[in-house]
Amino acid sequence: MSGLVIRDLTVSYGASAALDSVSFTVAPGELVAVIGANGAGKSTLLRALSGLVPVNNGIAMWNELNILDHRPENLVRAGIVHVAEGKSVIPELTVEENLDLGGIWQGRSKSIAPLKEEVLDLFPRLRERLGQSADTLSGGERQMLAIGRALICRPQLLLLDEPSLGLAPLIIEEIFAAITGLRSAHGLTVLLVEQNALSALAIADRGIIFNLGKIVATGKAAELMSDPTLRSSYLGY
Amino acid sequence: MSNFLQTLLIGVSSGSIYALMALALVLVWRSTRVVNFAQAGQAIISTYIGYEANFHLHNYWESVVVAVVAGAILGAAVEGLVMRPLAKRIRGTAATDIAPVIATLGVLGLIRSLAGLIWGNTFVQYPSPLSAKGYTIGKTVIQFSPQSAAIVVGTALVMLAFALLFNYTRLGLALRASSFQPEISRLAGIKVDRIRLVGWACAGAAGAVAGALVTPTSYLSPNSLDLLLVSGFVAAVIGGLDSLVGAGVGGLILGVGFAFILEYIGASLTFLSGFIILIFVLLVKPAGIMGKRGGRSA
Fold first, then answer.
1. Residues in chain B, pLDDT under 70
2. Chain A residue numbers touching B173 (CB-CB < 8 A)
3. What is the ipTM, given to two decimal places?
4. Is residue A18 included in any domain, yes or no?
């Protein structure tokens, strides 16, 4: 079985289960949106898949790789790249250093220059600010930088945590268009976690709706969007 | 030569040593957020190893290199054998913040006792080919010696090497990234644990340079670098604890300050004044003179 396979994944913080026996699959090349309110367990899911939080029970496989056996830095080497919540850039470094960071593990043998060019063509605003401290960037630019660094890490499975959080609608549109573009250009498999159900389902193939650590609905993105019960209970529009 | 210039030279020389010790503390603070009191002990061991090397090789400069290598290995060993296993065990408990600092005090005690067992609690000399006697200007002998000059030049070279390492190499970028944001660095594929070992090794090397350069100006004993640790700590805090440049500037301010107080006010006030400077800096600019706005980050 190839792609991402998750069976009975359970993560507990203390007594409460943040992720309660979750099972689903993502086919290679698919873009799946995980939708849910705050505290639904979406971020915990991504943190478990990138090795940041220990898992109590369950299975998580990426192609032949047992994800739960590996640390975050090794999962990156296997093509699993996580863009964490909250515009995950290092404000003390310059924009260019933030991008270069993604190339360090690749050593000198592989040049990241073409990938860097691609990122700067995709987000021209970053090119103008290459030498500036990432601290000076706007929220949208930080999110672009975080996605840019992820691309330089040469992802196969991209885990995106709330890329739209706190951003203006026009910027959200730009970033989601970039995600779609990268996906088709690089054949990426994408797991996109969002509270912004409309924007996420608009670019996703399928959606999974989380509530209180459990999956409450899955289906084709278009079907989920048009289901009146789901719309009023979970999608919030 | 005027009294003023002579005092300044003496201050720059002792300030250089404080700066190296401060650098060692800052490197560890940046990589693991621990104030490493064991640094004085690590520097003692590496200096004794330099002393032994000098005894066998009959070459001071080669012995300094041996001491620096030993200091780097020792630094990595303290992190790898004590601090990292400890951090794994106490993660998420109430002891997370305090236990590592207590552990460095434990390592300091252990190392010093070991040094006493191996080399005895006596004073020995670790001589350098350079004279520790002051230069003669005209008819007066000043207190700045060829060894003092070596201290200043050696410190400048170490600082330059670290500046190049941190700002112009991939390893330096990894060191900076891991110290600011370990989680984001891991997600970018950086092996943060390994980078921390390198940080501790760099710190051990810097402390070893300090020990091997300053010891020929006095004596070597299991406790002979303790005061240096205190001065280095004060210098690091003056500089902001997080800043490599701050460590250099803090060391020089403290060294020059001490020299002038000793010359113009009196010996009894010298050490006291260090703590007055420390408290003044903490009250006026808590993040240190090179610290970022927003105050001290823990």
1. 1, 291-298
2. 93, 97, 100-101, 104
3. 0.93
4. no
